[in-house]
Amino acid sequence: MENIDFNQILSIAIYGSAVGLILIGLYAVLMKKHLTKIIIGLSIIDAGIHLLFIAIGYISNGTSPIFSEKGISLVSEGTKMVDPVPQALVLTAIVIGFGVTAVALSLVIRLYRHHQTARIDQIKTLKW
Amino acid sequence: MVVSPVHFIAVPLLAAFLMPILAKVNKNLLRIVPGIVLTYLGYVSVVLMNRVATEGTIIEVLAGWSAPWGINLVYTPFTGFLATLMIAMSFLIWLYSFKFKKVDDEPALKYFILQLMLTTGSVGLVLTGDIFNFFVFMEIIALSSYALTAFYRDRNGAEAAFKYLLIGAFASTLFLLAIVLLYSQVGTLNMAEISVRMHDVPTSMKVSILVLFLVGIGIEAEMFPLNGWAPDAYSQAPSPVGVAFAALVVKAGVYGLVRITYTLFGIEGSGIGPFLIIMGGITLVMAEITALKQTSLKRMLAYSSIGQMGFVLIAFGIGTHEAVFGAIFLMFNHAIIKGLLFMSGSYLVYNTPNKEIKYLSGYGMKMPVISLFFSLGALAIVGLPPFAGFWSKLYILLAAADGALYGLIALILVVSIIEIVYYFRVVGRLYFGKPAEGSIMRKPTVGGMIAMSILAIAILVVGFYPDIITGYIDAAASSILNTDEYIKNALGAVNELTPVENIIQ
To answer: Which of A2, B53, B122, B482 has an alpha carbon 20 to 30 Å from B374's alpha carbon atom?
Structure first.
């Protein structure tokens, strides 16, 4: 048991939890009957994908991707910096996910008022 | 004033968010402002279409970050043609729904805002050259469609919208996953640069990314088996929204499918072409057979819409210049003809229970003009000469014959017969059915009549003189087929130093 690489364990843990979150969310979307639980499942899948995206952009011991004025760059040459693009994208994706969840929950309220139930197996006016 | 492709996104988005304030100033503004915005965008479209015809592709770099670092808008003949079509259809939808919910203003405000958002999303999706920006516009389309589907409280809109949302949210999650995987492989989000670097990606990875993309965008393109949302959404949403689905949302979805398969992955020798033909064929057959047994007019039109998209997928799958020409022509025809069918059809079934076809007997005498419009649309969409639909179907058949795909020709002809049966069932009932007593007719609005007349004239003019449109479609087809030129144009903007390089030096 020599040379246990902490970074390797960390990356396995992050990728593992990302895949785990996606699978948990999938289970909730496919198996649960309550509309709110389905929406929670969708949010969990989203969270898993966001984590995966961040993990792809991460470099162990990397620095912040900040450039400053000419000459006094915060990033000295040769050092690795973390890829900023995935982080920016995840920020956008979180906002989009928030919007979708909000619309979905308002639809659940509408459905509950219309049918007096929020269980998917009891709402069958339209063909599924 | 200098026009640029960025106006297509900035102007309607700004107007949409200003509308709550404008509506407080004067209640009529919320009905007038979308018209002004769309008229201006129509002017921009005309200017840019002329410029793109003479000077070639227009690249608009956003916020000073040139490709591949920043987001760019790529206005090729193909994207320009679709954007112009979408703006024109949005304008007609606005005319058609000018008096929408005239009595209470609060829902009308939301309706006009959401319609503008839908236009922004569709046009933006077509114009963007960045895959993540593409995803953002897809979500703008999706969110406004969900809200528009659930617009009526008394109908079953919420259920249809939830169904749509469930499929749509799941699909966009997969689309995001595809972007994540793609970024991990190629390290860029610019579509032109992805296309350049795609050769280095291992085949297994390529296939998984492609499948995730196809599921993600297949929802909006109504590809089988992802089209379960469409009939419910079309039938539960307000009728102008049905037109918007057929003319904007589905067109944007098909564009996305084509851009991803043609530009990102490359259609030649990759097996994607046959796959698209098979999926299109299944979509077509399933949709048309289901349409045959529908009793509700709007559901029938929705399934017919899915079927037409099956045609488009088949044509894009064949992939020759002639086939792509036919496919783009069919996209154009479907927008105008299905627009006319939805607009006139929703007046026909306005007061009938469950929008059912069987109550339409004898409406040809009661609503002569509307019935005439509907019949014209029906004749055109099944592809009878001399209407617009004939030419697109002809070109697709010729392309199939060139490729010696005789099974496909047989399939298309058989399906056309099914189409004729279910459309003529309605038209026959309109004119030869026994009129029922005492049904109340809905009098069409002036705006609605103008919108339908314009569409009807367009169908006739394109039918008799297809030459006025074929030049644009031909340029569009060459543009989508020529991936190298797209890459050269989109990345050609990199001729000066980017901001980052400026700082480093």
So the answer is: B122
